[in-house]
Design a protein that fits this description.
By secondary structure, the chain is of the alpha/beta class. It has 13 helices and 16 strands. The chain starts with 10 loop residues before the first helix and ends in a 5-residue tail after the last helix.
Length: 462
């Protein structure tokens, strides 16, 4: 396991946290250490301050065995954003009252900012070896899952409480307000069911219609449809291709005032799991140009074997940019998500930054939806090993359709239970004024049930 510092509150970490607070509250607070035991939050030129007790080296631990207690905020007179009791990772007990007010400020008997640092930097995951078959840190191994708060944005919930403390200490301050929003994205693993496969794989896909998807109609139609789609996809995707749902997805986004982001695979580092298309293929180039013409976003989906190899991520990012340049595609930002949500902290994070990308939206779990980073707000990236802020934005992933629907994960299927789970997560984001980020593959709206569910989840108001 990689070595970590004995305390989290380095000068660079404090400057980074100042920027996090600035984005959240709209004011420039100064964070300052006192005797390595107390952290103060202050405004320049004002003698009032909020001080916080520090939890020693608790929030530099790269494990999931931290203690955790529940704090009943309502009993102590504080409003909450989601539920009355807030989990307090890192605390084995909390004094009552948790906040003590004085003439010139308030003292909080919990290392709120240390917990936020631990969650946002994913310090918990550094050097972990308890990984799944794809080398991913699983939700089931996380502190959040073990203590029942994975489906809650606890960073945002604690910041909601901190905002009330700030307003009591500085009643003249008007804090920044945030409105709920939604971002939808689509990993283009399979833009065509048949178009890019060799004929022997077309035959296997036809069999899969019956065996895997239990789709008798598709199986019966496949002998006619497959050759038509394959032969008709030389310049553009065939309109009858079951996976060619791109216009339908963009129609849904436009109807709800959303912009879809489509993330394309631009490499082949593992033949078993990577895409069967090349991004330079005329049909893919046409698709990218069409997406851009409709006002939606093009992004990167680095190949399966790239997550520990920054040079591969950089090469694939450059490949995408070159294709975009040739097509006349210009965007204000470039982002994307790792294939299979493969991630090694902070190797993959730094690789995205080094590749010159603007944001990454990988950090959600494959085996369970929820708040891997404890937040539904985008935030600046920080490398907890190097102790440095990175020129990259982290856009946490809250829900992937496969995580909720597929039998390999939650297995809720297409029905009321799955819909309720999406609604629950979306409502939690709305309660804190955050962003519900949703990943839904273009190959997962191939029947009426899936389309109806997607349509309902992506409605801004319902």
């Amino acid at each position: 396991m990689q070595q970590v510092r004995q305390h989290w509150h380095t000068s660079t970490a404090l400057v980074w946290l100042q920027s996090v607070l600035q984005e959240r509250f709209g004011h420039s607070f100064t964070l300052e250490m006192h005797d390595n035991q107390i952290l103060s939050v202050a405004l320049e030129g004002d003698d009032r301050a909020i001080t916080l007790a520090l939890a020693s080296d608790m929030f530099t631990r790269a494990d999931s065995e931290l203690p955790c207690v529940q704090w009943n905020a309502v009993v102590e007179g504080w409003s909450t954003a989601v539920e009355h009791k807030l989990p307090a990772p890192g605390a084995s007990q909390l004094p009552v009252p948790l906040m003590e007010f004085f003439a010139h400020g308030c003292h909080i008997h919990y290392d709120v900012l240390g917990m936020i640092y631990w969650m946002l930097t994913r310090q918990e995951e550094v050097g972990r070896t308890d990984l799944d078959e794809h080398g991913r840190f699983p939700a089931a191994a996380s502190h959040a899952y073990k203590h029942g708060y994975l489906e809650r944005p606890i960073v945002d919930e604690w910041l909601h409480v901190l905002s009330q403390v700030i307003q009591r200490v500085w009643p003249q301050l008007e804090l920044k307000r945030h409105r709920f929003n939604m971002k939808v994205s689509h990993d283009v693993d399979s833009p065509s069911l048949y178009g890019f496969k060799p004929w022997w794989r077309v035959a296997r896909a036809m069999a899969g219609d019956l065996l895997k998807r239990h789709d008798l109609r598709a199986f019966v139609m496949a002998p006619v449809l497959a050759p038509v789609v394959k032969l008709g996809s030389r310049r553009t995707l065939h309109p009858a291709d079951p996976f060619n749902t791109f216009d339908w997805l963009m129609d849904q986004s436009e109807a709800n005032g959303l912009q879809s982001a489509f993330y394309f695979i631009c490499g082949r580092s593992d033949e078993r799991y990577d895409a069967d298309y090349e991004p330079e293929h005329p049909a893919i180039r046409h698709l990218m140009k069409h997406i851009h013409a409709r006002g939606h976003e093009i992004g990167l989906h680095p190949s399966y074997g790239s997550y520990q190899k920054p040079n591969i991520i950089a090469a694939e990012a450059q490949r995408l940019r070159l294709i975009a340049q040739e097509l006349g595609i210009s965007q204000p930002q470039w982002g994307g998500r790792m294939h299979y949500l493969r991630w090694e902290q902070p190797t993959t994070l730094r690789a995205w930054a080094d590749a010159g990308m603007d944001y990454d939206s990988t950090l959600g779990y494959a085996d369970h939806p929820g708040f891997r980073c404890g937040t539904c707000f985008e935030y600046p990236a920080f490398d907890p090993v190097a102790g440095a802020e990175l020129p990259l934005r982290v856009r946490p992933l809250i829900a992937m359709e496969v995580s909720v629907i597929d039998p390999a994960y939650l297995g809720l299927g297409i029905g009321l239970a799955a819909q309720a789970k999406f609604d629950q997560l979306r409502t939690a984001c709305a309660h804190v004024g955050g962003c519900f980020t949703l990943l839904w593959h273009n190959s997962s709206v191939i029947n009426v049930g899936l389309k109806e569910m997607y349509s309902r989840v992506t409605q801004i108001h319902y």
